[in-house]
Amino acid sequence: MSFLGLASYYRQNLKAKSLYRICDQQRVFEMRQERIKAYEKIRKALTEAPLLFMPDWNIPFKLYIDACGDGLGAALHQVRIIDDKPTEGTVCYISRQIKPTEAR
């Protein structure tokens, strides 16, 4: 699990639900195809240049939110002019799983 420990610093920007589920001490470890794919996606994301914008407090923000039975998520965006074209980019992502008591 040391890979997940290293990647957890970037947890807000990475999708790894299937991998974090195996950290539960109540579950038996099974390395399934979906977990291998999640691992590869995280590894790729950690080795590529970040695509997040630094916040510019002089430009309006756009907030996208979503909720479902499994979790909550939000993305904060801004529109910048890049190469003479308006480009919408992410400032930050945030998400978390819904706890069993919250799902009731």
Automatic annotation (TrEMBL):
PANTHER family assigned to the protein according to its UniProt record, in alphabetical order: DNA (CYTOSINE-5-)-METHYLTRANSFERASE, ENZYMATIC POLYPROTEIN-RELATED
One matching Pfam family: RT_RNaseH_2
Annotated signal sequence range: none
Domain (Reverse transcriptase/retrotransposon-derived protein RNase H-like): residue spans on this chain: 33-103
Superkingdom: Eukaryota
Annotated transmembrane regions: none
Xref: InterPro entries: DNA/RNA_pol_sf (IPR043502), Rev_trsase/Diguanyl_cyclase (IPR043128), RT_RNaseH_2 (IPR041577)
Protein name, UniProt field: Reverse transcriptase/retrotransposon-derived protein RNase H-like domain-containing protein
Species in which this protein is naturally found: Austropuccinia psidii MF-1
